Amino acid sequence: AAIKKYQFDVQVKNVSRLCHAKPIVTINGRFPGPTIYVREGDRVLINVTNHAQYNMSIHWHGLKQYRNGWADGPAYVTQCPIQTGSSYTYDFNVTGQRGTLWWHAHILWLRATVYGAIVILPKQGTPFPFPRPYREAEIILGEWWNGNVEEFVNKANNLGLPPNSSDAHTINGKPGPLFPCSEKHTFAMEVEQGKTYLLRIINAALNDELFFGIAGHNLTVVEVDAVYTKPFTTEAILIAPGQTTNAFMDAPVAVDNKTATGIFQYRGIPNTVLPSLPQLPASNDTAFALSYNKKLKSLNTPNFPANVPLKVDRKLFYTIGFGKESCPTCLNGTRFVASLNNISFEMPQVGLLQAHYFNLKGVFKTDFPDRPQTPFNYTGAPLTASLGTSTGTRLSKIAFNSTVELVLQDTNLLTVESHPFHLHGYNFFVVGTGIGNFDPAKDPAKYNLVDPVERNTVGVPTGGWTAIRFRADNPGVWFMHCHLELHTGWGLKTAFVVEDGPGSDHSVLPPPKDLPPC
Ligand code: C2O
Questions:
Q1: How many whole angstroms from 480 Cα to the centroid of ligand 1?
Q2: Mean of the per-residue pLDDT values for the chain?
């Protein structure tokens, strides 16, 4: 194991896309930001120094940060922001994980431009459970906004804008030639015939679930969210904000119409014809989504077993709600709210992890309900009322090492939509999913408890439910939220307090000395 050090300078830089130049927040002046390359077992020290007029905080999405929430990054959950002129060193070990993850700003909407890839190579001498690729490449899908993202946020919070409101989708920060004024910002990669390429695909978009495909090629998926999967071949992958997918680009070029395009140029073949576009499923193709997700399974081999909890200590059932609430200071006098079990999460003024560790009173309550207070027909006739949403910093307390099953149920409040839920500090097994209302009497019998996919971000289908299981073996305060930034902003989030276990090596580590003060 080695110590890997990185310097991240938060800087504002002028960047131009679609012929619109604007100042954006970057790391080291780069958009997307630098890739972190580490090996399983390494200790990583990333010094973040903030030279911008915005508070900053960075999350290493998918890294478990065992006992070490201090390095997790969500602002006001595990730390207070790094203020202008200050620094903080994220200090963590990469244990028991290898594959593709990513990092992004975790404060307001700064992740619109502050993001990059994390590549964790397996330990020396531990090969991939698939043939070694000739080359590999990171493909980061993102969004570009000509205007000021902050303004969009404020409008979205007051008026409720539809999620697809960026001006372009991007591949590695480039929109590609299908967008006006964008020819010179096209992602291109030279490939050789007969060689294998591993693509590390990351969805860093703020609000859009995306399909990714390459014309004339299939993709073989081998890993999601840094966990190996049983390989399967597909024309397109489905990837939600927050998720990562490693796929081989199968032998014999470009990428999606409404989204961004890029070019895979074969060496030695002249580029005289325009690249063709791949056929991608329609954006509302639920059938494709369901069948794609069914194919995702854990590798489940002796070296990479799927240790699915078979017995459940704690059953949680959370409904996803939306509504409007009155807001005298807002335009129109109302604002949008989103909730879990009718509770819209309110961010505290100090870090929740500090409050937990130092036992500060009055910052949060641990009375988050395990199930909805007033059950209703969740996916029946459309409902417009928010069913009495209340705002609060209410968390659920979970006993150390207990096994948890959480069913996330979409509802017909306002709109039906797919929600990518991300849990910090853990991977979980996706044991079941379905359309309609979850039926506790019948659905568990259909769970996959043998080789369900293990990941850190999962889509709750439109008008349906998803069941996940995990063992609460990582003490601390862990955020869970919809990775659609719009919904997170409306309050579609909560956090778990996982208690310390017995003995000093099952408790939260002491905070680092340079932890930013509130
Ligand atoms: Cu990728 Cu809490 O986020």
A1: 8
A2: 91
Instruction: Note whether 245 and 332 are same-domain residues.
Output: no
Whole-number Å distance, alpha carbon 445 to ligand 1 midpoint, is: 31
Name the residue at shortest CA distance from atom 3 of ligand 1: 61
User: Ligand 1 — pocket residues by CB below 6 A?
Assistant: 59, 61, 74, 104, 106, 242, 422, 424, 479, 481, 483
Query: Tens digits of per-residue pLDDT, 27-45?
Result: 999 999 999 999 999 999 9
Q: How far is ligand 1, taken at its centre, from the CA of residue 179, in Å?
A: 29
Task: Answer with the residue of higher pLDDT: 301 or 374.
Answer: 301
Distance CA 236, CA 213 (A): 4
Taking the centre of ligand 1 as the mean of its atom positions, its distance from the CA of residue 59, in whole angstroms, is 7
Are 22 and 146 a contacting pair, CB within 8 Å? Answer: yes
What is the reported pLDDT for 255?
A: 42
CATH code, domain carrying 422: 2.60.40.420
Same domain membership, residue 464 and residue 356: yes
268: number of Cβ within 10 Å? 8
Which atom number of ligand 1 is nearest to the Cα of residue 73? 2
Residue that terminates a domain, selected from 250, 266, 295: 295
Atom of ligand 1 nearest to the CA of 111: 1
100-114, 149-163, 429-443: the lowest-pLDDT one: 149-163
395 CA to centre of ligand 1 in angstroms: 17
Looking at the structure, tell me whether residues 31 and 170 fall in a common domain.
Answer: no
> In 3D, which of 74, 62, 68, 101 has the Cα closest to residue 423?
62
Q: Which atom of ligand 1 is nearest to the CA of 104?
A: 1
**Distance from chain centroid for Cα 435:** 23
Q: Which two tokens stand for residue 158?
A: 């007051």
Ligand 1 centroid to residue 104 C-alpha, Å: 8
Look up the pTM and report it.
Answer: 0.95
pLDDT for position 414: 59
Considering the domain architecture, whether residues 200 and 148 belong to the same structural domain is answered as yes
What's the pLDDT at 417?
Answer: 65
- Number of Cβ atoms within 10 Å of the Cβ of 363: 18
- Starting at the edge strand found earlier in the chain, the sheet holding 476-482 runs 396-398, 493-498, 476-482, 419-423, 457-460
Ligand 1 closest atom vs CA 457: 1
Within-domain flag for 518:
no
Closest CA to 244 of 106, 138, 101, 34: 101
Strands (DSSP E) contained in 204-243 are 210-213, 219-224, 227-234, 236-239
Whether 234 and 351 map to the same domain: the answer is no
| Residue 256: predicted pLDDT | 40
**What does the pLDDT average to over 63-92?**
98
Region 235-254 average pLDDT: 85
For residues 426-445, average pLDDT: 97
Task: Specify whether 145 is located in the same domain as 283.
Answer: yes
pLDDT at 381: 80
* Closest ligand 1 atom number to CA of residue 102: 1
What pLDDT, in 10s, does the model give residues 401-415? Answer: 999 999 999 998 755
What was the pLDDT predicted at 275? 53
